[in-house]
Write a structure and sequence with these properties.
By secondary structure, the protein is mainly beta. The protein has one helix and twelve strands, in the order H-E-E-E-E-E-E-E-E-E-E-E-E. It has one domain: Outer membrane phospholipase (ompla), Chain C.
Length: 264
């Protein structure tokens, strides 16, 4: 990484992503060592957006971004790292999710997750007597709990709870995010074009500050086609957390999801 600009070369990004796939594949292959056939999943997505928005929609990059989402796992356990960059190459955040499907019922599911993460922020520092823009890495640890109740093939209700701890000086020590969400899937628009709608009402508490918000994600996709278009909108209801009242973005997503059967 260039210390003055904080930029990564394309070769560095490619090497990083390749190493994560290789390491995580070896980890997952070791989790089922019996002789029965095992279904394993490999998925990836690349998102290009005009405004990078985080899992907690209050937080945004405020400029164009590219995001790499990877996932490899078995029936229950998966490793799902995320790498996010500003479009010019500066890193935004690296998140290393481990997720576990604790309950896998037809109507009710319960997913648990945990991750270490690194978030990058730009600040001015004095180097050799001159003021320069530098990237500072901040470390976090987080856990999530995600219960979901499936009403029908197209409608589900759920809760999402995330707790994060900032490990470095100057970070928020305790963040609590809880959302009540609904998913409306496979809303047919025309022929094989469908809409997925995910509205949610959430509360965010960061140390002594808290706020209430409403947000929604809209995704338009075509059956058996890897490209989709998505948009996130976020509106403040009431908050004392410094943030914009209204946030939105528009994203183009390339994704694939494959399943493999292993007999060994």
């Amino acid at each position: 990484m260039n210390k003055q600009t904080g930029q990564f070369s394309k070769s560095t990004i490619s090497l990083l992503v390749g190493l994560i796939i290789l390491i995580s594949s070896n980890v997952v292959l070791a989790q089922d060592a019996d002789s029965t056939p095992t279904i394993r999943q490999l998925k990836a997505a690349v998102t290009v957006t005009n405004n990078g928005i985080s899992v907690i929609p209050t937080f945004m990059l405020g400029k164009p971004a590219v995001m790499f989402d990877l996932g490899v796992g078995g029936k229950r356990l998966s490793f799902e790292p995320q790498f996010r960059f500003a479009l010019e190459g500066k890193p935004w955040s690296f998140i290393f999710w481990w997720r576990y499907k604790a309950v896998m019922g037809k109507k009710f599911t319960l997913n648990l997750g945990a991750h270490p993460a690194i978030a990058f922020r730009e600040t001015q520092m004095i180097v050799d007597g001159q003021s320069r823009d530098m990237l500072v890495a901040q470390r976090f640890l987080a856990t999530e709990v995600v219960p979901t109740f499936r009403i029908s093939d197209k409608v589900s209700l759920g809760l999402y709870y995330l707790h994060a701890n900032g490990l470095d000086k100057g970070t928020t020590k305790n963040t609590n995010f809880i959302a009540l969400n609904t998913a409306f899937s496979n809303i047919r628009l025309i022929e094989d074009i469908s809409l997925k709608l995910n509205p949610q009402l959430y509360m965010l508490k960061m140390d002594e500050l808290h706020g209430y918000y409403v947000t929604s994600t809209f995704t338009v996709s075509k059956k058996d086609f890897p490209l989709s278009v998505s948009s996130i909108v976020n509106q403040v209801i009431k908050t004392d957390i410094p943030s914009k009242d209204f946030v939105w973005n528009l994203s183009l997503i390339y994704a694939f999801n494959k399943e493999y059967v292993s007999k060994y």
